[in-house]
Specification:
Elements: H1 5-10, H2 16-29, E1 49-54, E2 57-58, E3 62-66, E4 72-76, E5 88-92, E6 97-98, E7 100-105, E8 110-115, E9 124-129, E10 145-151, H3 164-180, E11 200-202, H4 203-218, H5 224-240, E12 252-254, E13 270-271, H6 272-288, H7 294-307, E14 325-326, H8 345-353, H9 361-368, E15 379-380, E16 383-384, H10 417-434, E17 451-454, E18 457-460, H11 472-476, H12 483-496, H13 498-501, E19 502-503, E20 506-507, E21 511-512, E22 522-523, H14 529-543, H15 546-552, H16 555-563
Parallel strand pairs: 3-10
Antiparallel strand pairs: 1-2, 1-4, 4-8, 5-6, 5-9, 7-8, 9-10, 11-12, 13-14, 15-16, 17-18, 19-20, 21-22
Protein backbone atom coordinates (compact mmCIF):
# COMPACT_ATOMS: atom_id res chain seq x y z
CA UNK A 1 0.00 0.00 0.00
CA UNK A 2 1.31 3.45 -1.00
CA UNK A 3 1.97 5.91 1.89
CA UNK A 4 1.19 9.66 1.63
CA UNK A 5 4.20 11.86 0.93
CA UNK A 6 3.72 13.88 4.11
CA UNK A 7 3.76 10.76 6.36
CA UNK A 8 7.02 9.67 4.82
CA UNK A 9 8.57 12.99 5.69
CA UNK A 10 7.33 12.85 9.27
CA UNK A 11 8.74 9.36 9.75
CA UNK A 12 12.25 10.76 9.41
CA UNK A 13 13.18 8.22 6.79
CA UNK A 14 14.04 10.87 4.16
CA UNK A 15 17.20 12.97 4.11
CA UNK A 16 16.39 16.36 5.66
CA UNK A 17 18.43 18.21 2.97
CA UNK A 18 16.54 16.55 0.18
CA UNK A 19 13.26 17.37 1.86
CA UNK A 20 14.21 21.05 2.11
CA UNK A 21 15.14 21.17 -1.55
CA UNK A 22 11.87 19.61 -2.65
CA UNK A 23 9.84 21.96 -0.54
CA UNK A 24 11.75 24.95 -1.90
CA UNK A 25 11.03 23.91 -5.45
CA UNK A 26 7.38 23.38 -4.70
CA UNK A 27 7.14 26.76 -3.04
CA UNK A 28 8.49 28.72 -6.01
CA UNK A 29 6.54 26.78 -8.62
CA UNK A 30 3.10 27.43 -7.12
CA UNK A 31 2.10 31.07 -7.78
CA UNK A 32 -1.45 32.55 -7.70
CA UNK A 33 -3.86 32.50 -10.65
CA UNK A 34 -3.25 36.20 -11.04
CA UNK A 35 0.30 35.51 -12.03
CA UNK A 36 -0.69 33.23 -15.04
CA UNK A 37 -0.68 34.94 -18.52
CA UNK A 38 -3.00 33.03 -20.93
CA UNK A 39 -2.01 32.65 -24.61
CA UNK A 40 -3.41 35.25 -27.03
CA UNK A 41 -6.66 34.17 -28.87
CA UNK A 42 -7.65 35.60 -32.37
CA UNK A 43 -11.26 36.73 -32.05
CA UNK A 44 -11.65 38.02 -35.70
CA UNK A 45 -14.22 35.93 -37.53
CA UNK A 46 -14.31 35.87 -41.35
CA UNK A 47 -17.80 36.28 -42.81
CA UNK A 48 -19.09 33.87 -45.44
CA UNK A 49 -22.16 34.18 -47.64
CA UNK A 50 -25.02 31.88 -46.66
CA UNK A 51 -27.32 32.89 -49.51
CA UNK A 52 -28.10 35.77 -51.87
CA UNK A 53 -31.56 36.68 -53.14
CA UNK A 54 -32.64 38.99 -55.96
CA UNK A 55 -36.24 40.14 -55.79
CA UNK A 56 -37.07 37.23 -53.53
CA UNK A 57 -35.50 34.52 -55.70
CA UNK A 58 -32.10 32.84 -55.53
CA UNK A 59 -29.53 35.00 -57.32
CA UNK A 60 -26.99 32.80 -59.04
CA UNK A 61 -24.73 33.62 -61.96
CA UNK A 62 -27.20 35.19 -64.39
CA UNK A 63 -30.85 36.26 -64.12
CA UNK A 64 -33.05 37.84 -66.81
CA UNK A 65 -36.18 40.02 -66.84
CA UNK A 66 -35.26 41.82 -63.63
CA UNK A 67 -37.23 44.92 -62.62
CA UNK A 68 -35.67 48.35 -63.09
CA UNK A 69 -35.41 48.81 -59.28
CA UNK A 70 -34.16 45.43 -58.04
CA UNK A 71 -33.69 44.45 -54.37
CA UNK A 72 -30.84 42.26 -53.14
CA UNK A 73 -30.75 40.40 -49.82
CA UNK A 74 -27.42 38.90 -48.69
CA UNK A 75 -27.28 36.66 -45.61
CA UNK A 76 -23.85 36.27 -43.98
CA UNK A 77 -22.52 33.97 -41.28
CA UNK A 78 -21.36 36.90 -39.15
CA UNK A 79 -22.55 40.41 -38.35
CA UNK A 80 -21.15 42.85 -40.92
CA UNK A 81 -19.21 46.03 -40.15
CA UNK A 82 -21.22 48.95 -41.48
CA UNK A 83 -18.14 50.89 -42.54
CA UNK A 84 -17.16 48.10 -44.96
CA UNK A 85 -20.41 48.12 -46.97
CA UNK A 86 -18.62 50.23 -49.60
CA UNK A 87 -17.29 46.87 -50.83
CA UNK A 88 -20.69 46.33 -52.48
CA UNK A 89 -20.98 47.70 -56.04
CA UNK A 90 -23.25 47.65 -59.08
CA UNK A 91 -22.09 48.44 -62.65
CA UNK A 92 -23.62 48.35 -66.13
CA UNK A 93 -22.29 46.75 -69.32
CA UNK A 94 -20.07 49.78 -69.92
CA UNK A 95 -18.54 49.38 -66.46
CA UNK A 96 -20.24 52.54 -65.22
CA UNK A 97 -20.82 52.42 -61.46
CA UNK A 98 -24.41 52.72 -60.25
CA UNK A 99 -24.92 54.23 -56.75
CA UNK A 100 -26.51 51.80 -54.28
CA UNK A 101 -28.22 52.15 -50.90
CA UNK A 102 -27.39 49.54 -48.22
CA UNK A 103 -29.06 48.60 -44.94
CA UNK A 104 -28.08 46.14 -42.21
CA UNK A 105 -30.72 44.03 -40.46
CA UNK A 106 -31.09 40.85 -38.36
CA UNK A 107 -28.32 41.74 -35.92
CA UNK A 108 -26.27 43.07 -38.84
CA UNK A 109 -25.88 39.65 -40.49
CA UNK A 110 -28.24 40.52 -43.35
CA UNK A 111 -27.43 43.23 -45.91
CA UNK A 112 -30.21 44.76 -48.01
CA UNK A 113 -29.09 46.50 -51.21
CA UNK A 114 -31.04 48.57 -53.73
CA UNK A 115 -29.86 50.89 -56.54
CA UNK A 116 -30.29 54.55 -55.71
CA UNK A 117 -31.82 55.18 -59.16
CA UNK A 118 -34.01 53.38 -61.66
CA UNK A 119 -31.92 51.17 -63.90
CA UNK A 120 -32.06 51.22 -67.68
CA UNK A 121 -34.31 48.71 -69.40
CA UNK A 122 -32.82 45.80 -71.35
CA UNK A 123 -29.33 46.25 -69.93
CA UNK A 124 -26.88 43.82 -68.40
CA UNK A 125 -25.60 44.68 -64.91
CA UNK A 126 -22.98 43.14 -62.64
CA UNK A 127 -23.45 42.98 -58.86
CA UNK A 128 -20.21 42.56 -56.86
CA UNK A 129 -18.97 42.28 -53.30
CA UNK A 130 -15.20 42.59 -52.87
CA UNK A 131 -13.06 41.07 -50.14
CA UNK A 132 -12.96 44.49 -48.49
CA UNK A 133 -16.23 43.53 -46.80
CA UNK A 134 -15.60 42.78 -43.11
CA UNK A 135 -17.41 41.22 -40.22
CA UNK A 136 -18.04 43.28 -37.07
CA UNK A 137 -15.08 41.49 -35.49
CA UNK A 138 -12.76 42.61 -38.30
CA UNK A 139 -12.56 39.41 -40.35
CA UNK A 140 -12.50 39.78 -44.14
CA UNK A 141 -14.63 38.10 -46.79
CA UNK A 142 -12.39 35.39 -48.18
CA UNK A 143 -13.72 35.26 -51.77
CA UNK A 144 -15.39 37.99 -53.85
CA UNK A 145 -19.06 37.61 -54.82
CA UNK A 146 -20.22 38.30 -58.39
CA UNK A 147 -23.48 37.92 -60.23
CA UNK A 148 -25.00 39.38 -63.40
CA UNK A 149 -28.56 40.12 -64.38
CA UNK A 150 -30.49 41.68 -67.25
CA UNK A 151 -33.24 44.19 -66.69
CA UNK A 152 -36.58 43.61 -68.31
CA UNK A 153 -37.72 45.05 -71.62
CA UNK A 154 -39.83 48.16 -71.35
CA UNK A 155 -43.15 46.61 -72.35
CA UNK A 156 -45.15 49.82 -72.24
CA UNK A 157 -46.96 50.83 -75.43
CA UNK A 158 -44.94 53.52 -77.19
CA UNK A 159 -47.80 54.63 -79.45
CA UNK A 160 -51.58 54.61 -79.09
CA UNK A 161 -53.19 51.33 -80.13
CA UNK A 162 -55.07 51.65 -83.43
CA UNK A 163 -57.00 49.28 -85.68
CA UNK A 164 -54.86 46.87 -87.70
CA UNK A 165 -55.81 48.45 -91.03
CA UNK A 166 -54.80 51.86 -89.73
CA UNK A 167 -51.55 50.37 -88.47
CA UNK A 168 -50.80 48.87 -91.89
CA UNK A 169 -51.53 52.27 -93.46
CA UNK A 170 -49.12 53.90 -91.02
CA UNK A 171 -46.33 51.43 -91.75
CA UNK A 172 -46.78 51.61 -95.52
CA UNK A 173 -46.82 55.41 -95.50
CA UNK A 174 -43.66 55.79 -93.41
CA UNK A 175 -41.84 53.10 -95.42
CA UNK A 176 -42.94 54.78 -98.66
CA UNK A 177 -40.97 57.86 -97.62
CA UNK A 178 -37.73 55.95 -98.21
CA UNK A 179 -38.64 55.52 -101.89
CA UNK A 180 -40.11 58.98 -102.35
CA UNK A 181 -38.18 61.42 -100.17
CA UNK A 182 -34.86 59.57 -100.13
CA UNK A 183 -34.68 58.69 -103.84
CA UNK A 184 -31.74 60.12 -105.77
CA UNK A 185 -32.64 63.68 -106.87
CA UNK A 186 -31.14 63.42 -110.37
CA UNK A 187 -32.09 59.94 -111.54
CA UNK A 188 -35.06 59.21 -109.28
CA UNK A 189 -33.49 55.80 -108.68
CA UNK A 190 -33.40 54.29 -105.22
CA UNK A 191 -30.35 54.67 -103.03
CA UNK A 192 -28.81 51.48 -101.71
CA UNK A 193 -29.01 52.44 -98.05
CA UNK A 194 -29.28 55.40 -95.74
CA UNK A 195 -25.70 54.90 -94.50
CA UNK A 196 -24.16 54.18 -97.92
CA UNK A 197 -22.55 56.97 -99.97
CA UNK A 198 -25.43 59.08 -101.24
CA UNK A 199 -24.50 58.67 -104.92
CA UNK A 200 -24.91 54.87 -104.90
CA UNK A 201 -28.22 53.71 -106.36
CA UNK A 202 -29.28 50.10 -106.75
CA UNK A 203 -31.04 48.52 -109.71
CA UNK A 204 -32.84 45.78 -107.79
CA UNK A 205 -33.84 48.21 -105.08
CA UNK A 206 -35.15 50.55 -107.77
CA UNK A 207 -37.35 47.75 -109.08
CA UNK A 208 -38.76 47.38 -105.58
CA UNK A 209 -39.07 51.16 -105.34
CA UNK A 210 -41.12 51.38 -108.53
CA UNK A 211 -43.53 48.87 -107.01
CA UNK A 212 -43.62 50.97 -103.84
CA UNK A 213 -44.53 54.03 -105.92
CA UNK A 214 -47.53 52.16 -107.31
CA UNK A 215 -48.63 51.36 -103.76
CA UNK A 216 -48.19 55.04 -102.89
CA UNK A 217 -50.54 56.06 -105.69
CA UNK A 218 -53.18 53.50 -104.71
CA UNK A 219 -52.97 54.51 -101.03
CA UNK A 220 -53.15 58.22 -101.80
CA UNK A 221 -49.67 59.05 -100.57
CA UNK A 222 -48.97 60.71 -103.93
CA UNK A 223 -51.07 61.45 -107.00
CA UNK A 224 -51.07 59.33 -110.12
CA UNK A 225 -49.38 62.18 -111.99
CA UNK A 226 -46.64 62.45 -109.39
CA UNK A 227 -46.00 58.72 -109.56
CA UNK A 228 -45.97 58.74 -113.37
CA UNK A 229 -43.48 61.60 -113.49
CA UNK A 230 -41.13 59.91 -111.03
CA UNK A 231 -41.14 56.63 -112.95
CA UNK A 232 -40.63 58.55 -116.22
CA UNK A 233 -37.53 60.12 -114.67
CA UNK A 234 -36.22 56.69 -113.75
CA UNK A 235 -36.86 55.13 -117.17
CA UNK A 236 -35.32 58.09 -118.98
CA UNK A 237 -32.17 57.70 -116.88
CA UNK A 238 -32.05 53.95 -117.49
CA UNK A 239 -32.49 54.37 -121.27
CA UNK A 240 -30.16 57.28 -121.88
CA UNK A 241 -27.46 57.38 -119.21
CA UNK A 242 -26.83 53.94 -117.78
CA UNK A 243 -24.28 51.61 -119.31
CA UNK A 244 -25.68 48.13 -119.88
CA UNK A 245 -24.01 44.82 -120.71
CA UNK A 246 -25.92 42.79 -123.28
CA UNK A 247 -28.98 44.64 -122.06
CA UNK A 248 -28.43 43.81 -118.40
CA UNK A 249 -27.76 46.35 -115.68
CA UNK A 250 -25.09 46.45 -112.99
CA UNK A 251 -25.92 46.08 -109.31
CA UNK A 252 -24.77 49.59 -108.36
CA UNK A 253 -24.76 52.82 -110.33
CA UNK A 254 -23.82 56.42 -109.75
CA UNK A 255 -27.17 58.18 -109.45
CA UNK A 256 -25.97 61.27 -111.30
CA UNK A 257 -23.74 59.97 -114.08
CA UNK A 258 -25.11 56.46 -114.57
CA UNK A 259 -21.59 55.03 -114.40
CA UNK A 260 -21.04 51.61 -112.88
CA UNK A 261 -19.94 51.49 -109.24
CA UNK A 262 -18.34 48.07 -108.64
CA UNK A 263 -20.23 45.97 -106.11
CA UNK A 264 -17.08 43.93 -105.52
CA UNK A 265 -13.67 43.49 -107.16
CA UNK A 266 -14.93 41.35 -110.06
CA UNK A 267 -18.53 42.56 -110.03
CA UNK A 268 -18.30 45.68 -112.19
CA UNK A 269 -20.66 44.75 -115.01
CA UNK A 270 -23.95 42.97 -115.51
CA UNK A 271 -25.91 41.52 -112.61
CA UNK A 272 -28.67 39.45 -114.16
CA UNK A 273 -30.64 38.86 -110.95
CA UNK A 274 -30.67 42.54 -110.00
CA UNK A 275 -31.75 43.24 -113.57
CA UNK A 276 -34.65 40.81 -113.13
CA UNK A 277 -35.78 42.63 -109.97
CA UNK A 278 -35.62 45.93 -111.86
CA UNK A 279 -37.61 44.57 -114.82
CA UNK A 280 -40.16 43.05 -112.41
CA UNK A 281 -40.88 46.54 -111.11
CA UNK A 282 -40.90 48.12 -114.57
CA UNK A 283 -43.34 45.56 -115.97
CA UNK A 284 -45.64 46.13 -112.97
CA UNK A 285 -45.59 49.87 -113.72
CA UNK A 286 -46.28 49.26 -117.41
CA UNK A 287 -49.34 47.20 -116.50
CA UNK A 288 -50.50 49.86 -114.06
CA UNK A 289 -50.20 52.85 -116.38
CA UNK A 290 -52.56 51.56 -119.04
CA UNK A 291 -54.01 54.89 -120.14
CA UNK A 292 -53.28 57.24 -122.99
CA UNK A 293 -51.04 60.25 -123.45
CA UNK A 294 -47.86 60.17 -121.39
CA UNK A 295 -48.68 56.70 -120.15
CA UNK A 296 -48.32 55.35 -123.68
CA UNK A 297 -44.81 56.82 -123.85
CA UNK A 298 -43.93 55.25 -120.51
CA UNK A 299 -45.06 51.82 -121.68
CA UNK A 300 -42.95 52.19 -124.82
CA UNK A 301 -39.87 53.10 -122.80
CA UNK A 302 -40.37 50.20 -120.41
CA UNK A 303 -40.75 47.74 -123.29
CA UNK A 304 -37.52 48.99 -124.84
CA UNK A 305 -35.63 48.44 -121.58
CA UNK A 306 -37.14 45.04 -120.79
CA UNK A 307 -36.93 43.65 -124.32
CA UNK A 308 -33.25 44.56 -124.70
CA UNK A 309 -32.06 42.20 -121.94
CA UNK A 310 -30.24 39.31 -123.67
CA UNK A 311 -31.22 36.68 -121.13
CA UNK A 312 -30.09 33.71 -123.19
CA UNK A 313 -26.64 35.22 -123.77
CA UNK A 314 -25.95 34.77 -120.05
CA UNK A 315 -25.76 31.01 -120.50
CA UNK A 316 -21.98 31.44 -120.90
CA UNK A 317 -21.32 29.66 -124.19
CA UNK A 318 -24.72 28.01 -124.44
CA UNK A 319 -24.65 26.02 -121.21
CA UNK A 320 -27.99 24.85 -119.83
CA UNK A 321 -27.92 27.37 -116.98
CA UNK A 322 -27.91 31.15 -116.54
CA UNK A 323 -24.96 32.97 -115.01
CA UNK A 324 -25.31 35.80 -112.53
CA UNK A 325 -22.47 38.18 -113.61
CA UNK A 326 -20.46 39.34 -116.59
CA UNK A 327 -18.33 42.43 -117.20
CA UNK A 328 -16.39 43.82 -120.13
CA UNK A 329 -12.97 43.51 -118.49
CA UNK A 330 -13.53 40.67 -115.99
CA UNK A 331 -15.59 38.47 -118.27
CA UNK A 332 -17.13 35.53 -116.37
CA UNK A 333 -14.68 35.85 -113.48
CA UNK A 334 -17.47 35.71 -110.88
CA UNK A 335 -18.52 32.37 -112.43
CA UNK A 336 -21.71 32.11 -110.35
CA UNK A 337 -24.50 29.98 -111.74
CA UNK A 338 -28.06 31.00 -110.94
CA UNK A 339 -29.35 27.79 -109.38
CA UNK A 340 -32.26 27.18 -107.06
CA UNK A 341 -33.56 27.34 -104.49
CA UNK A 342 -33.03 31.01 -103.70
CA UNK A 343 -34.48 34.44 -104.52
CA UNK A 344 -33.93 34.23 -108.29
CA UNK A 345 -36.98 32.42 -109.69
CA UNK A 346 -38.22 35.59 -111.43
CA UNK A 347 -34.99 35.66 -113.49
CA UNK A 348 -35.87 32.37 -115.19
CA UNK A 349 -39.54 33.32 -115.64
CA UNK A 350 -38.60 36.59 -117.40
CA UNK A 351 -35.88 34.85 -119.41
CA UNK A 352 -38.32 32.19 -120.60
CA UNK A 353 -40.94 34.80 -121.56
CA UNK A 354 -38.58 37.15 -123.41
CA UNK A 355 -39.70 38.10 -126.91
CA UNK A 356 -36.30 37.88 -128.60
CA UNK A 357 -33.84 36.44 -126.06
CA UNK A 358 -35.72 33.56 -124.49
CA UNK A 359 -34.29 30.47 -122.83
CA UNK A 360 -35.73 27.00 -123.24
CA UNK A 361 -37.35 24.89 -120.53
CA UNK A 362 -34.24 22.72 -120.53
CA UNK A 363 -32.22 25.64 -119.11
CA UNK A 364 -34.78 25.92 -116.33
CA UNK A 365 -34.95 22.20 -115.58
CA UNK A 366 -31.23 21.50 -115.70
CA UNK A 367 -29.91 24.87 -114.59
CA UNK A 368 -32.30 26.37 -112.07
CA UNK A 369 -33.87 23.17 -110.78
CA UNK A 370 -30.68 21.14 -111.05
CA UNK A 371 -32.70 18.28 -112.56
CA UNK A 372 -34.62 18.12 -109.30
CA UNK A 373 -31.73 18.57 -106.88
CA UNK A 374 -33.27 21.78 -105.51
CA UNK A 375 -35.96 19.66 -103.87
CA UNK A 376 -35.79 19.09 -100.14
CA UNK A 377 -38.89 17.21 -98.97
CA UNK A 378 -37.82 16.90 -95.34
CA UNK A 379 -39.86 18.14 -92.39
CA UNK A 380 -38.69 20.63 -89.80
CA UNK A 381 -40.89 21.24 -86.74
CA UNK A 382 -43.27 18.76 -88.42
CA UNK A 383 -43.59 21.13 -91.38
CA UNK A 384 -42.66 19.83 -94.81
CA UNK A 385 -40.21 21.95 -96.81
CA UNK A 386 -40.56 21.34 -100.57
CA UNK A 387 -37.44 23.17 -101.80
CA UNK A 388 -34.09 24.56 -100.78
CA UNK A 389 -31.58 24.06 -97.99
CA UNK A 390 -32.51 22.57 -94.64
CA UNK A 391 -34.74 24.89 -92.62
CA UNK A 392 -35.33 26.91 -95.79
CA UNK A 393 -32.52 29.49 -95.80
CA UNK A 394 -33.06 33.26 -95.43
CA UNK A 395 -36.65 34.43 -95.77
CA UNK A 396 -35.87 36.76 -98.69
CA UNK A 397 -36.00 33.59 -100.81
CA UNK A 398 -39.79 33.89 -100.49
CA UNK A 399 -39.95 37.67 -100.93
CA UNK A 400 -37.88 39.11 -103.77
CA UNK A 401 -39.27 37.07 -106.68
CA UNK A 402 -42.72 36.85 -105.10
CA UNK A 403 -43.21 40.58 -104.90
CA UNK A 404 -44.52 40.10 -108.47
CA UNK A 405 -45.06 36.36 -108.84
CA UNK A 406 -48.14 35.21 -106.94
CA UNK A 407 -47.31 31.85 -105.32
CA UNK A 408 -50.91 31.07 -104.37
CA UNK A 409 -52.08 28.08 -106.39
CA UNK A 410 -48.85 28.12 -108.40
CA UNK A 411 -47.06 24.82 -109.02
CA UNK A 412 -44.70 23.08 -111.40
CA UNK A 413 -42.85 19.78 -111.60
CA UNK A 414 -40.90 20.58 -108.43
CA UNK A 415 -43.20 22.18 -105.88
CA UNK A 416 -46.36 23.88 -104.83
CA UNK A 417 -45.12 27.44 -104.37
CA UNK A 418 -47.94 28.32 -102.02
CA UNK A 419 -46.78 25.48 -99.78
CA UNK A 420 -43.15 26.49 -100.21
CA UNK A 421 -43.68 30.12 -99.23
CA UNK A 422 -45.95 29.36 -96.28
CA UNK A 423 -43.97 26.45 -94.88
CA UNK A 424 -40.59 28.14 -95.20
CA UNK A 425 -42.00 31.11 -93.27
CA UNK A 426 -43.52 28.86 -90.59
CA UNK A 427 -40.26 26.95 -90.14
CA UNK A 428 -38.43 30.23 -89.65
CA UNK A 429 -41.10 31.29 -87.14
CA UNK A 430 -40.91 28.05 -85.16
CA UNK A 431 -37.12 28.13 -85.13
CA UNK A 432 -37.09 31.58 -83.55
CA UNK A 433 -39.92 30.71 -81.16
CA UNK A 434 -38.16 27.60 -79.85
CA UNK A 435 -34.84 29.50 -79.86
CA UNK A 436 -32.37 26.58 -79.81
CA UNK A 437 -29.38 28.92 -79.41
CA UNK A 438 -30.97 30.68 -76.42
CA UNK A 439 -30.68 34.19 -77.79
CA UNK A 440 -32.32 36.53 -75.33
CA UNK A 441 -35.45 38.13 -76.77
CA UNK A 442 -36.45 35.58 -79.42
CA UNK A 443 -40.15 34.71 -79.07
CA UNK A 444 -43.35 34.15 -80.99
CA UNK A 445 -43.47 37.95 -81.40
CA UNK A 446 -39.78 38.47 -82.18
CA UNK A 447 -38.86 36.35 -85.17
CA UNK A 448 -37.59 36.54 -88.73
CA UNK A 449 -34.17 35.66 -90.12
CA UNK A 450 -33.10 37.06 -93.49
CA UNK A 451 -30.31 39.11 -95.06
CA UNK A 452 -29.78 42.37 -93.20
CA UNK A 453 -27.35 44.56 -91.39
CA UNK A 454 -25.89 43.10 -88.22
CA UNK A 455 -23.70 44.72 -85.61
CA UNK A 456 -20.49 45.69 -87.44
CA UNK A 457 -21.44 43.98 -90.67
CA UNK A 458 -24.00 42.32 -92.93
CA UNK A 459 -25.18 38.71 -93.03
CA UNK A 460 -27.72 36.46 -94.72
CA UNK A 461 -29.27 35.07 -91.54
CA UNK A 462 -31.15 31.78 -91.42
CA UNK A 463 -31.68 28.98 -88.90
CA UNK A 464 -28.35 27.52 -90.02
CA UNK A 465 -26.64 30.91 -89.87
CA UNK A 466 -28.22 32.50 -86.84
CA UNK A 467 -26.14 35.17 -85.09
CA UNK A 468 -28.89 36.62 -82.92
CA UNK A 469 -30.14 39.42 -85.19
CA UNK A 470 -33.76 39.93 -86.24
CA UNK A 471 -34.78 41.94 -89.32
CA UNK A 472 -38.30 43.41 -89.20
CA UNK A 473 -38.69 42.90 -92.95
CA UNK A 474 -38.49 39.12 -92.54
CA UNK A 475 -41.70 38.63 -90.57
CA UNK A 476 -43.57 41.64 -91.99
CA UNK A 477 -42.95 40.75 -95.65
CA UNK A 478 -44.21 37.23 -94.84
CA UNK A 479 -47.63 38.65 -93.96
CA UNK A 480 -49.33 37.05 -97.01
CA UNK A 481 -48.06 33.61 -95.92
CA UNK A 482 -48.26 33.77 -92.11
CA UNK A 483 -50.80 36.50 -91.33
CA UNK A 484 -51.30 35.76 -87.61
CA UNK A 485 -47.62 35.24 -86.81
CA UNK A 486 -46.51 38.22 -88.90
CA UNK A 487 -49.12 40.54 -87.44
CA UNK A 488 -48.05 39.62 -83.90
CA UNK A 489 -44.46 40.49 -84.77
CA UNK A 490 -45.45 43.70 -86.55
CA UNK A 491 -47.48 44.86 -83.54
CA UNK A 492 -44.66 44.06 -81.13
CA UNK A 493 -42.10 45.92 -83.26
CA UNK A 494 -44.34 48.98 -83.47
CA UNK A 495 -45.98 49.19 -80.05
CA UNK A 496 -43.31 47.73 -77.75
CA UNK A 497 -40.02 48.32 -79.58
CA UNK A 498 -41.20 51.39 -81.42
CA UNK A 499 -39.01 53.82 -79.50
CA UNK A 500 -36.00 51.87 -80.78
CA UNK A 501 -37.13 50.62 -84.19
CA UNK A 502 -39.61 53.11 -85.62
CA UNK A 503 -37.78 55.95 -87.34
CA UNK A 504 -37.90 58.32 -90.30
CA UNK A 505 -38.37 55.69 -93.01
CA UNK A 506 -40.23 53.04 -91.03
CA UNK A 507 -38.58 50.20 -89.20
CA UNK A 508 -34.79 50.22 -89.02
CA UNK A 509 -33.09 47.36 -90.80
CA UNK A 510 -32.32 45.04 -87.88
CA UNK A 511 -31.90 44.67 -84.14
CA UNK A 512 -30.78 42.32 -81.39
CA UNK A 513 -32.21 41.94 -77.89
CA UNK A 514 -29.42 39.49 -77.07
CA UNK A 515 -28.08 41.23 -73.96
CA UNK A 516 -26.55 38.09 -72.49
CA UNK A 517 -24.20 37.26 -75.36
CA UNK A 518 -21.79 39.21 -77.53
CA UNK A 519 -24.34 41.28 -79.42
CA UNK A 520 -25.66 43.30 -76.52
CA UNK A 521 -28.95 45.12 -76.99
CA UNK A 522 -28.33 46.59 -80.44
CA UNK A 523 -30.66 48.58 -82.69
CA UNK A 524 -29.62 49.55 -86.19
CA UNK A 525 -29.92 53.16 -87.26
CA UNK A 526 -29.92 52.44 -91.00
CA UNK A 527 -32.37 51.47 -93.76
CA UNK A 528 -31.75 49.32 -96.85
CA UNK A 529 -33.76 49.51 -100.07
CA UNK A 530 -33.99 45.75 -100.51
CA UNK A 531 -35.45 45.36 -97.03
CA UNK A 532 -37.81 48.37 -97.01
CA UNK A 533 -39.23 47.39 -100.41
CA UNK A 534 -40.65 44.01 -99.41
CA UNK A 535 -42.32 45.58 -96.36
CA UNK A 536 -44.53 47.99 -98.29
CA UNK A 537 -45.08 45.74 -101.32
CA UNK A 538 -45.87 42.50 -99.48
CA UNK A 539 -48.22 44.30 -97.09
CA UNK A 540 -50.09 45.50 -100.19
CA UNK A 541 -50.13 42.02 -101.71
CA UNK A 542 -51.62 40.80 -98.43
CA UNK A 543 -54.26 43.53 -98.48
CA UNK A 544 -55.23 43.79 -102.19
CA UNK A 545 -52.87 41.59 -104.28
CA UNK A 546 -52.07 44.78 -106.23
CA UNK A 547 -48.54 43.91 -107.39
CA UNK A 548 -49.37 40.24 -107.87
CA UNK A 549 -52.28 41.13 -110.14
CA UNK A 550 -50.24 43.61 -112.15
CA UNK A 551 -47.16 41.48 -112.74
CA UNK A 552 -49.03 38.23 -113.34
CA UNK A 553 -51.17 39.95 -115.99
CA UNK A 554 -48.14 40.72 -118.19
CA UNK A 555 -48.01 38.64 -121.40
CA UNK A 556 -44.29 37.83 -121.08
CA UNK A 557 -44.85 36.58 -117.53
CA UNK A 558 -47.76 34.42 -118.64
CA UNK A 559 -45.67 33.07 -121.52
CA UNK A 560 -42.67 32.39 -119.31
CA UNK A 561 -44.66 30.50 -116.70
CA UNK A 562 -46.40 28.45 -119.38
CA UNK A 563 -43.15 27.56 -121.13
CA UNK A 564 -41.57 26.41 -117.86
CA UNK A 565 -44.45 24.11 -117.04
CA UNK A 566 -46.20 26.10 -114.32
CA UNK A 567 -49.88 25.67 -113.57
CA UNK A 568 -52.47 27.38 -111.38
CA UNK A 569 -51.89 31.00 -112.39
Amino acid sequence: MRRPFLSIIMSGKLNPGLVFTVLLVLCFSCGSKKDIVPPAIDIKKNPSLNNMMLNGAIFNTSVVNVSAIPQFRLVFSQPIKAASLTAISLSDDRDTKIPVATLLSDNDSVVLVQPAQRLSYLTKYTFSVSTALQSASGGSLQSPINGSFVTTLDSSRKFPVIANNALLDTIQKRTFNYFWDFAHPVSGMIREGSKHPSNIVTTGGTGFGIMALLVGIERGFITRTEGLQRIEKITDFLENKVQTFHGAFPHWLDGTSGNVIPFSQNDNGADLVETAFLVQGLISARQYFSGGGEEVLLRTAINAIADSVEWNWFRQNNQQVLYWHWSADKGWAMNLKIRGWNESLVTYVLAAGSKEHAITRQVYDEGWAGSGTMKNGQSFYNIRLPLGPDYGGPLFFEHYSFMGINPNGLSDAYASYEEQAKNHSLINYHYCSTNPKNYFGYSDSVWGLTASNIKNGYAAASPTNDQGFIAPTAAIASLPYTPAESMAALQFYYYVLGDKLWKEYGFVDAFSLDVLKNNGAWFDDAFLAIDQGPIIVMIENYRTKLLWNLFMSAPEVQNGLTKLGFAGF
